[in-house]
Amino acid sequence: MKPLLRVGVPLWSLLISSSLLKICQAQCDSNDCNSTQTGAWTTAAMPTLTAAETATQTGTMASAIPTTVGTFTPGPASENGTTSLHTTMQPEAVTNLQVTHFTTSSATLNWTKPAGGQSFKVQWTDGINNRTENTTALSHTIHSLTPGVQYNVTVSAVAADGWTAGKGQTVSLHTTGQNQRETPALYTIRVAGEGENIENTTTETSFVLKELTPGSQYNISVAAVAVHPSNEGERASTSTFTRPEKPGNIELTERGTVSLSIRWPLPRGKFQHFLVDVNETGSGSVYKNATTANAASITGLGPGRSYAITVTSVAGSFEETSEQYEFATSPTPPGSIMVSLKTNSSLLLEWATPALMEGAQTLSYNVTYQSDGKEMQTITTSVNRPNPVLNLVAIPKSISSLEVKWSYPQGAQASYTYFVSLPQFKTTVSTNSTEIHNLDPGTCYNITVKTVVAPQSESTEEKTHACTMPRAVSNLTVKAVNMTAIQLTWLRQPDYKGHYSYLNDTTAYENYTFSNLTPGALYYFEVFTVADGVRSEVTMISIDTKPAPATNVTVTGSTTNLSVSWRAPPEQVVSYTVLVFQDNQLQVSNKSLDNRTTNTVVTDLVPGVYYCVVVVTKSKTQETNSSEVCRATMPRAVSNLTVKAVNMTAIQLTWLRQPDYKGHYSYLVVARQAGTKVQNDTTAYENYTFSNLTPGALYYFEVFTVVDGVRSEVTMISIDTKPAPATNVTVTGSTTNLSVSWRAPPEQVVSYAVLVFRDNQLQVSNKSLDNRTTNTVVTDLLPGVYYCVVVVTKSKTQETNSSEVCRATVPNPPGSIVVMSKTINSINISWPLPQYMDHKQYNFTVSSVIGNFITENSWFLLENLQSGTLYNISVATVGVCNYKSTPVVASSYTKPHPVHNLTATEVTTNTVTLTWEQLESKPSYLYLVQPANDSVFWSTTVNITTVTITGLTPGSRYNFTVTSQTADGTQALQVSRSFYTHPDRVHPSVSTVSNSSLLVSWRTPQGGVEHYLVRLNSSFSQDEQLVTLNNTSTNHVFGDLSAGRLYSVQVTVCSGPLQRLLWNCVQCHV
């Protein structure tokens, strides 16, 4: 039966109200609200989340959204009312994540599948852009990466529910760069979403898309464009979502004892679904489910509990979480009230904890009562019988203390205390642990702990049993030691008890012998006193056995050193010492060599002395000697080995005796060529001559001192004979190069050098040419210079010059020919000087059909030529040795004679026919004819000496120019003449003005007019009149005439020397 709850109140009339639970609604910290941690928990009542209302939104949801909302299903209830929830645990992290291959734009990764992982989420970023892909395989290839960029790639395991993800593992990679990559002129970006199509361009390698719809999916492609929009490269595409907006304020629409109903406004834009997180305040439990509606009903909750709720908008891989809100379920009523412990002033009330509210946080009760004739009163209490502590244990801490620990009881409050009791010891603490001191060593105790809420409100006792540690042994010593056995002894404790034993193998006595130990091994010995399974503190000592000796000792030597090596014993060795004796007297002791060492060098010995060597193996405190091995040191080598004389086939060696020279010393001399011994001999003297050697060959000479068959270290020297010279040296050249070839000598040559001299000064030295080379090209010389060449044959230290061969380089050609001027019988040309040449060392040759000419100037005048004739001209540079450069060539015409006798053979009102004559005419001549006046200029070309020019204006003056020219457009001097066209005629009319005057009028003719002549004639000569009028006049009145007389009128149009007369006279009577 559940424990009864009690409260004491004054004895009056009582009115009991149902229990109340403070319901709070508070906004949580933003860091807690954004938590996405998931897990599996057990609590008093678990929620079931169902959809309460379907959200209405324009557009369509992604097809991946489930059509039904999942639920959290509580498990079967236990006897204490606890319900268990079965939810998905986070899978473990992937292991062995590594990059197995990468290129300029892709990378392949693989990993090991962890427990709980069914699929995997691969995320990568370059610090600016983030991408995610899912896979069920254990490897994945990422494409469309940027060359030469570092990426961080994270792989997370995903559980079977498809969204619970484990901890991600991250690896960095760097794609390879691309060489000589062409930079695009710009990039085109195309964005396609539902009802949206956007296109932009940029010259950068990144672009920010703005004013998109939140939570929407967009297909994005980018292509590089080179210079012209039609030159678009292959498009790289990706698909992503914009981040959705987070849901607005969460509202509580209905509250029950085991359920909560909530709703929230739809965010702007789009979303795929919502994730609803429900966390019981204070318990750390987390529940999550998805819904496409903007409302949810959460059932299966515990009564009287506070829950923190967040709602997350999801679009693709993006999530936005709302603020956190807290809502509480309604409490259930307490159990039936029982009255006990009645006094004359109080009653003790007890009741059962409300159903399903065991362990609920901040549970309190309002007790309302009313005495007879008094006002109703209310008190609040949380006093009740507490639960017992959990997991009570006691641990030995020392020989006189124990540590007691427990878990807090179910429903524990900060005000609880805990009563701890032992025989002869009692204490009350407010935490869940305490230490008990001043106990007896090696003694066992019974311990009880009770939860205390208030006087007369205690839990049942929890009991445990523990023993203090016994005292450790003392005076631990080693009594005897041999190769395989060690005996330990120690003293009893002053408070020794009969049930004590000693652990290390276990014995009841104060001594113990260890046998079958390893020789040379260091051992640590530990002794514990044990009482009722509790150990004392440890007492320790260490010692080692005698090691086994080293075997297979070998000794080799030099003049002052002996090299010692040995085989290590199979048993343990701490270190080695090498001892060296001469005539049983210790000379050297290498005292401490590492146990990994199996060889050493003993130095600073005397040459030619007989020594004996012993190798000592050591453990920590013991040592063993090996058998003795003896050997003599080497004699000293000779010194100051030199070459005294060298010729083509013989070399003499000399050297100095050793300071400790002995009469029985001899010398071994060896000659080697290319690693092969070619001569050797023995001598008792300090010199030796080798003969019959090969010219130009490199030799290595070795000299040993020999004592009783033991050689000293070698003394070496090398030298070579002088090589034979190169023969048949030939030199050919161009402007800046000389090609040199030769015949190699039959004897050995190490290398060649080619020396180039100018005026006995070295200009070029190709210092090292391979001995297989018999030709080379000397470059970067000056054109038109006299050089001498020597080929040098080389051995290692000797060399021989060939005979000298001299030759000049070819001069550079002059620059392009420029025609400076020309006449009818001459052409004047010039050219730039040739590059990189001294002007004092060359001339020029000028060639044409009229002959060849030498000049030191950079110009030349060709004379006595025919007019209007094409001449081909070449110029070449003439250097030392009369070497000529490649010629430069140009072609040019002389000028033709100008035309003469230019005349106009026929003139009309709108045409002029010209003729002329041409001296030394050529069939290819053309004539440029150009008529011009103040308003007209044009030209025509003819190939004959006459032309008729039409379309002219009547009465106008024209300047006619005729120019003769050759086929390439070379023109003679211009010849010009001016001619007028005939003016146009007029048609006058005459009318009588009075009996003494006549009016003559006409219209202005086409074309030009300089003036008019108007003549009046009659039968009487005294009446004749002639007037001159300007070109603007169109009438004239003749006066003072005789009445009744017949008159005739003539109007003449004048332009330049030409006149146009109206021959038919106009007659009229006055």
UniProtKB/TrEMBL annotation:
Signal sequence interval, chain numbering: 1-26
Domain Fibronectin type-III: from-to ranges: 93-179, 246-335, 388-471, 546-637, 722-813, 898-984, 985-1070
Gene3D superfamilies, per database record: Immunoglobulins
Keywords: Repeat, Signal
A Pfam family assignment: fn3
SUPFAM superfamilies: Fibronectin type III
Protein name, as recorded: Fibronectin type-III domain-containing protein
